[in-house]
Thymidylate kinase (Laccaria bicolor), 228 residues
Amino acid sequence: MRAPFIVIEGLDRSGKTTQTSLLHTRLEAEGIQAKLMKFPDRTTVIGQMIDSYLRSDSELDDHVIHLLFSANRWELASYITQLLEAGTPIICDRYAFSGIAFSASKGIPSSTPSPKLPYEWCRSPDIGLPAPDLVLFLDIAPERAKLRGGYGEERYEKEELQARVRGIFQRLGSEMQNETQRPVRPNWVTVDAGRERKVVANEVWSLVEPLVINRIDDPVAKLWSDKL
Ligand code: DGP
């Protein structure tokens, strides 16, 4: 038996970071020591390059930044597996799904017939990462997310781009739900993040609690292992 790996995904300003931290606090209150992680992890050398790019302090080719985001996850891949096997649940703010959703959304406006970075190309470098057991997609309409303050400070925080990002998250979710092979897919659950913070937190808790209490019987799976 090992601990569960839980990922929280969503658009910018969907309340992901708040919900991740509320969940972590609740787990602690229940006496469960979980590890809180966040991608991009801006503390590593690669993370600092990503941070500089996101703040528009540096420019990088779209392929290069995509691979750096993925490398930033691979930097922590064996640590993730070790923690889970040692019995520490992981709550992770963003993961490979953001990698695909944001990168594959670039350059789709009507002026360009196809994305700059195709969906399958974007997925490739993340194939084989430790697979989460549960992905909670905090879904909110981009026009509502925009009203939640702080929007527009970083590179991707533009409503049009966020709308495309949402579409790709939805595609990822429906592909996961159509998969039949366990443990290839994480369980993908869409949570309506447009509701009051407490209501969302209660739903998140109801989905996470059984995993943390019952723990996981299977070894840590590889993400999209059917593509390996
Ligand atoms: P955050 O620190 O959660 O606000 O995320 C920073 C921004 O980077 C956010 O706009 C989402 C985007 N992002 C997160 N992960 C990836 C990734 O793997 N690839 C790309 N292209 N963008 C990402």
